[in-house]
Design a protein that fits this description.
This protein has a domain at 109-191: Immunoglobulins (Immunoglobulin-like, Sandwich). The protein is built from three helices and 19 strands. It is of the alpha+beta class. The structure holds 2-acetamido-2-deoxy-beta-D-glucopyranose (3 copies).
Amino acid sequence: MEGRRVQQLLCLTVTLISTTLPSPQGLKVTPSRSQFLKEDSVSLSCEEDGWTVWRNTSRKKRRSCGDGWGKRDGSSCSISYMIDWDIGVYWCESREGAAGRSINITVADTVILESPVHPVMEGQDVTLGCKTSLQPFNLSADFFKDGIFIGTEPTGHMTLHHVSRSAEGLYKCNIKGSGESPLSWISVTGRAPPTSGSPPVNMASLESAFRVFCHLVVFCLYFISTLLMVSIYRQRATGNRMTNQPTHQSDDRLNNRPAD
Ligand SMILES: *[C@@H]1O[C@H](CO)[C@@H](O)[C@H](O)[C@H]1NC(C)=O
Ligand SMILES: *[C@@H]1O[C@H](CO)[C@@H](O)[C@H](O)[C@H]1NC(C)=O
Ligand SMILES: *[C@@H]1O[C@H](CO)[C@@H](O)[C@H](O)[C@H]1NC(C)=O
C-alpha cells in the first residue's frame, strides 16, 4: 500500500514538473540550416509525436505536409528536390492548433550561408559556413553581419567564439566568382537573466523558471512528507516486531496494510 502511494506521488510530481518545463514543440531541420541550394533535399521533423509540419509560401498559405508539398511520414516531412516554390516559413502544429516556433527556409541558386537554425545560447561558439554549387571553386569566403564586412576565411568557415547578445543580426556570405548568399537571422538568447536585452524573452524565461521552482518546492514537500510517513510506519513495524516475534511477518503485514 505504502509503495503504491509513493508511486502515485512520484507520478503526480513527475507530471507536474514535465508540464511546467518548456516543451520542445520544435521543428528539426536536417541538414541543420535554413538556406538550401536548388535540388538539395531536406528532412523536417517535429520533436513531438502527433504534430505536423506546416508551411506558408508566397503562393500558398497554411499547407500541411503532403497537401501539395513534401512527403509525409508520421511527424516527419521530406522534400527531395528543393525549388524556389519551397521558400517560406515552416512550423510544427498540433492537432489542437498549437504552433511551435517557425523557421524561415530559403532556396538559392549558387551560394548559401550555413548558420544555426534555432537561437543560440550566449557564450556558445557559432560556426558559419559558406557553400557554393559551382565547381571548381575557391573556398575562400567573405562574411558580413548587418551589411558590414566581418572577415575573410580561406576555408569558407568562420567561427564566432563565445557569442554575446551583440552577435545577433542578419548574416550573409560571398564567394568571389560564385556570388552572394541570401540573408539569415541569427538570434542569441541569454542564459541567465542579463541586465540588458529584450524584456519579453527575459520575462518569459524568468516566469517559467519561477514556475519550475514552485513545483520543485511542492515536489520536495510531498517527498519529505512521504519519507516521514514511511519512516513512521517503519518505526511502528519495528515496534510490532519487538513485541511480537522477530520474523519477516511484520514486513508482510506492513505491505498488506490497508491505507488509513
Ligand atoms: C501563415 O499564413 C497565415 C495566413 O496568411 C497567417 O495567419 C499565419 O500567421 C502565417 N504563419 C506564419 C508562421 O507566418
Ligand atoms: C582564393 O581567393 C582568395 C581571396 O579572394 C585569394 O587570396 C586566393 O589566392 C584564392 N585562392 C586560389 C587558389 O585561387
Ligand atoms: C522570416 O521572414 C519574415 C518575412 O520575410 C520576416 O519578417 C522575419 O523576420 C523572418 N524571421 C526570421 C527569424 O528570420
